[in-house]
Every structure is written in C-alpha cells, then in structure tokens.
Design a protein that fits this description.
Metallo-depent_PP-like; 4-stranded mixed sheet; alpha/beta
Amino acid sequence: MSYQLSRRQFLLSSASVAATSATVLPGCKMQSNNNQTDQTHRIALLGDVHFHDIHGDFGFNDNEVCIRTMQDSVGSTRMFNENYFVFKATLDDIVAEGIKFVILVGDFSDDGQEAHVDGLKRVLDQYSDDYGLEFFLTHGNHDPTTPYGEDCDKTFLRSDGAGVKVTSNQGDVESFNPTDEVDGVLYSTKMQSLGFTPLMEKLGRFGFQSQPHYHYYETPWNSNKLEDRVYQATSADGDYTVECPDSSYLVEPIEGFWICSVDMNTHVPLDPLGSQWDHDAKGYEDGKVQKPQVLAWLKEVIKRADEQGKTLLVFSHYPAIEYLNYSADDFYYLFADSSYNHKRVPTSETTEELIDCGLKLHFAGHIHINDTAKYVGRNGQTLVNVQAPSLAAYIPAYKKITCYAPDDFEIETKVIEDVPEFDSLFNHYENEISWRTAKGLDTHWKSMLEVSSYRELMYQHLICLTVNDKSDDWGWDMRHLYQSTFPIYWLMVLSVIDDDLSGTVLSTLVDNINPDTNDTKVIDLLVGAGLEQVSVNNAIEEVNQHLINMNYSRQQLNQAIFTDYCNAMLHIRNGDELALQDIGLDKVVGYSVVAELFGRCDIDNNLENHDYSQDYIEADPEAGSHEEFDENKDNLSNLKLRLAALARIFHMFRITEPTTHFRVFPSRGEVLDLSNENPLRIKA
C-alpha cells in the first residue's frame, strides 16, 4: 500500500531535520585565506562522500521521507544520512584552511539518483560562488551505476519508525506487499539513477566540461563535446560492441598546474542494444582492456607535463596498486568482505602498465580506506598510490595535498572529528527502534545513538556493520569465535599445540571457555578433549615465556577476547595508523605481542611471502568463507592458517608506508614519514 503523511504529521516529525538547514547552510560567508603562490598549489582530495540529500526533492508532500533507515546504514559500508552533515563540515574546514582546489574522486552521490545529484550540485554551487572553491570530479561505480541510467529503489524512514520503499519503477508500486520492516511504498521519478551524460551535464562546471577561466582543457577523444567522448564497450564474449561514454579530462585551472582525471569505470554490455550492462568495479584491471585509448592518452599527458615542467596531479576512482598493505588476500581469507575483495586489487601486470605510462604518483578512492602503497616496477621506477578514506565511513577524513614542485608533494590526512548536528536525526532512529521492537525486529545498533562525536559514530558503525551483516559471510570457525567470548590467551595456547583437534572438539572448547573460566578448568577441558597433559603444559610454558620475552604480562591480556582482536584488525584495515588512537595504543601493543606468537603458525616462517598452497585452505583465499559447520575445515590445523593470516596482516601494517602525514618525492620513489603516528612501524 502507499503511505502519505499529513502536513501536520510531517512538521512534527521532521522539525529536527528542518532545523539543521540553518546550521549547514551558513548565513554569513567565511573569508578564504588562500596563500597559494604560482609554485605552490594546495588541494583537498575527498574520497567517496556518497552524498545523500536529506532535504532532497523527491516530489513528495514537503519531502517528508528523505532519510534512510539506520537498519540500512548498518548493512552498508557507509552511513547514508549523516554524510550530508560531514560533507558540509568538511567543506567548511577546507575553506578555513584556505584551500581553493577540491577533488572528489568518485562515488560523490549515493547511487546517482537525480534528487541527490541535484542536492550535491546546490552545495557545490554554493561553495564555489560564496567561497571561491573550484571542484574537480570523477565518476565512481555508484555514479553512474550504469552508462545510461536505470531504475532505483531505497528504503527510507517514515516518521513512525517504519521503513517505506521509494522507487522510480511504477511496477514496484503496483506489486508491493508490506512487511514488518517495509510498510509502505512511494513512487518518485527523482529516484532514477542517472547515466553519464546527464551527470556530466548537471555537474559540468566541476571539471566534466571546459570552463572559460581554465587555462587549458582536453579529453582523450580529441573533442570536448560530450557526444564525442565515447568508446566502444565490448561484450564479454567479444561478439559485439556498444557505445559507452567516458569522462576523463585534463585541466589546467591555474598556470603550471595540471589536474588529470582518469575515468576507469568500465561497463560491459549484456545485449547489443545496450539496455543492460555489467559492472565489476575493477577499475584499471578492466579499463586497460576495454579502453586502452585512455591509458595511451595518460602516457602522453605525463610525457608533456614532464617536458613542459608542469606539476601534475593524477587521480581516478580506482587504485593503481594493491592496497591494504599488500594484505588483501589475507583480509579476504579471514573476513570475506566483497567490498574489499582481493579480486578488485590491481594485478602487478596492471601496475607495471601504469608505470610504463610514466605514472609515479596516483590518488584514488573506492575502497573506503586510508592507505599508502609503493610499488617498484621492473624498470626500477616507483609508483606511489594514495587512498583517500570515505567521509561516510570509518575513518572519516580527507587528504590535504601541497604541491611544492613537480616532484615534491606533502600529504596530510585530516580527520573530521566533530560535526555540527551529526546527531540531529537520532530522534528519528529512536522511532525506528520503537517500531522494530514492537515488530520483534533486531535493534542491536541502538548503542550507536550513545556516541558523542561523528568520529565515534563511524567507529561504532564499523562494528555494527560487522555484527549485522559482514560476519555472516565469514567462515564458520571465524564467525563462531567472533560470536563467542573466547580468550586471546587460550587461543595463543592452542596456536602452539602440535596436535590437531577436530572441528567438533574445537567448537566445544570455544563454547565452554571464557575470560572467567579458571586455569584448572581450562586445562581439564583441553586434556578431556584428547590432548596430552604434557603437551598442554608445554604450550602454556611457551606462551608465558613469549610474554616474558616481549616484556608483556598475562594480566595485561586478562579480558581480551578474539572479538576485540578482529574488531581492531578491521579498524586498522580502514583507518591504518589513524585507528591506533581509537583502539588504544596499549591494546594495539598487546595485539602486536599476540601477532608475534601467531606468526609461528605461518608454515614457511616468512610473513612477507604468500604461498597459496600453504597459506589457504584449498590454496584459495575465497575458500575461507563457508556458512555451515564443516568438520574438515573447522579443525585446529586450519584455524592456525587463520592465525597465520592475522600475523601477516599485522606484520605488513608495521613495515609499509605512512598514511597520516608524509612527503612524496615521486621521481626517486621516496615516501618520508612526517608524523610518526605508528610507533609500531619497523623502519627500513
């Protein structure tokens, strides 16, 4: 059934939303303090803002349903509503910093819906006109979701706490059946996801089209006209091609400074008419095949920049190097998260092709992580890739870039700690809790409403996302351990026991041991499980000696459980060294001590080497995910493979590049740490 609110109901239920307009749209202009010289250029680079316009015009009575449900947010890698507030707060911060140029590296909208794109345009226009900011955008896999647009539907939050389906497909309205979670349906053409051309027309002012004040502008297609900026996308079987737009461009906004946007979205047609498309969001990996013209153009741009002495900043939505400190396989083996899928990682062959293009420094988004990676090519040239985190996820931050010279870049990661009005929608989520409780639905995320800052909200969001959604895809053994309260100390003991334990026996131990179980009972359980008393005693002695050698005590691990360890690894995955202050340095030091011991589970005793045949069940990171209990997969021997993967992740975190504040000298491949935010880093 369709649901509509009265004018009075809407005004009462959305007063807090309306009140935010005054705070997020300042009445007085902030003075820009732009100290840039002809030689020094300052840029703010934002990754994956996923703008959701909470005041968007979807054509309803007074826009009463413009807020997504919290239940949807904790099932997504990003928060849906609060990104409105953090985006505005970040732009205010950029203005206060005196920065003029702002780059959005794709996924600038939710899913390219017209209402959200129109809202984004209003914000960008305001900051351009009032504060003199210049924006440069590229497309991501969420904008557009398909080259020529498609229907879209999302679940919005009704004032009484119920979900309501908002769709651009009239057929969805006619076939809708209410559920406990989604109780109504509404139709809106503004929910339609736009294609390339409408997006570039609406947002043309922001890099997609040449502007009168630009010193120079070009595209790979020998034309700046939108209708000419196309390539022939080839079907998977190679039988036919369909025309597909490309939005790559080169702009010189100020003399001597070039900004190059590389559109590596590749859409594969599923029919000769181009009515259906596939999109794996692999970026350069597919782009080098589907549109090699763009990489050939990039090579020429880099060559000309060198010859003309231009400072060149190259960005794309997609990374150019393996991210996650070269631990993507291990992360996928443990946590099976398709958002960080190891198959999205550029292969070394792709990175080599980019190095052959002359690329030395590259900026990207897409993965929602804070990361810096360095790769040395066959020709000895180095490529550095800088990943911008998402403001709509953990850790909410943007990159401040200062270009001193063509071969000298300073990069600082600015975390957005506090956001005005970030909690102004919480009363609506309280209504959602009431609705869901009355219907007997899950509300595990309600503790998120107790946070005191936006940064803390994003920290808790990642935990709730893991509990609500992501852990369902883990291997049964990982999920069972995560949902238990199994102590880290006794997991360390199991890791050094030579004997194997069956899946059934190991599962029973996990269910019966917790931080309050005394040593005598645990030892009895281990011996009762079939382990020799001497083996158990030797394992305990080995662990205790390890703690002594590491100048650490068992008491410091007293209440630590495997769940905490996993959550810490996931926060480090997203925030890298910036996560340390949120986790707590004392805890991270403890996890480092644990990882040192888990490293003994690595079969070849080389934490910097990946050997699929030894490191993973079935020699495949994807084999780490299995829903049901498996006696052959969930035994102690295979658990040790998991622990070895955790050890490799932590080791690589300690030896790779800084991510907080650093200097890059691209030609000589040097990355210089300016912050020392990771005290655990092993310096070369």
